[in-house]
Amino acid sequence: MNNHRASTDERYFERLTRNQRIQHVIMMSSFFLLVATGLPVLFPKAPGSSAMITFLGGFAMRSALHRAGAVILIGVCSYHVLHILFTRRGHEEFMAFMPNWKDLHDTIGMMKYYFGFAPNTPRFDRYNFIEKFEYLAVGWGSVVMIGTGALLWAPHLSLAFLPKWMMDVTLIVHSWEAILAFLAIIIWHMYNVHMNPSIFPMSRVWLTGKISRHELRENHPLEYERMLRAQGTPVREEEGDLI
């Protein structure tokens, strides 16, 4: 009876705007395009690399698609910076992602919980320390990839003002940052956002922009309570339901 009531009375709150969801989809598309066109070159002898290049239309087409993915990445990152600078929502979201001392306490609290020294997980706000780390990692990784990729785009021009050893270092940084980003997305991000038992099989926030009251209350209780206070609605401590 309680489960039926929870399913029929469930409320949803906006977590991501349409603008943010579009940015996410474009970023995701550029990422997978860059991975699909970049890894076969980085690991040319790996099983499937030759088949992937053939599937993409040959080496010249692969190169063109890789550059297209880079242009898309540059475009969405540039738009995101403008969104932060010139919109209220963008600025507020950016500030919410900035680390603070609570994140350090939350990290320690999570370690205590994992090792059985604390009965409960920390109470998170809009973004927890894992989400903040991912956001900042994407930002830093994008800067590194765009910067090194720009030098590698036309190596004959870059060599006009850079020594050969620096171009070699640039290639190494570009390649291994790409591997790090790929592993972070496939392992870290996919687990935390989709494969986590509390969310499995997939969080639909990136598609709908909506988060259920249950998920918001469980994973972001401080934000949930702040929203209730803004509405002038008290919180029932034992259940966290509206009264």
Write the layout of secondary structure elements.
Elements: H1 2-8, E1 12-14, H2 18-42, H3 49-55, H4 59-86, H5 88-97, H6 101-114, H7 129-153, H8 155-158, H9 164-195, H10 205-208, E2 210-212, H11 213-219, H12 221-230
Antiparallel strand pairs: 1-2
Helix pairs in contact: 2-3, 2-4, 2-9, 4-5, 4-7, 7-9, 11-12
Brief account:
By secondary structure, this protein is mainly alpha-helical.
Given the C-alpha coordinates, what overall shape results?
Answer: elongated
Structural class given helices, strands, pairing?
Answer: mainly alpha
**Average predicted confidence as pLDDT:** 90
Helix and strand run: HEHHHHHHHHHEHH
Helical segment tally?
A: 12
Task: List its traits.
243 residues, mainly alpha, two-stranded antiparallel ribbon, 12 helices, disordered N terminus
Question: How would you describe this structure to a colleague?
Answer:
The chain has 243 residues and is an all-alpha fold. It folds into 2 domains: 13-94; 102-211. Helix content is 71%, strand content 2%. It contains 12 helices and 2 strands; from the N terminus they run αβαααααααααβαα. Strands 1-2 form a two-stranded antiparallel sheet. It is elongated. The two termini are 19 Å apart. The model is unreliable at 1-8 and 237-243 (pLDDT under 50).
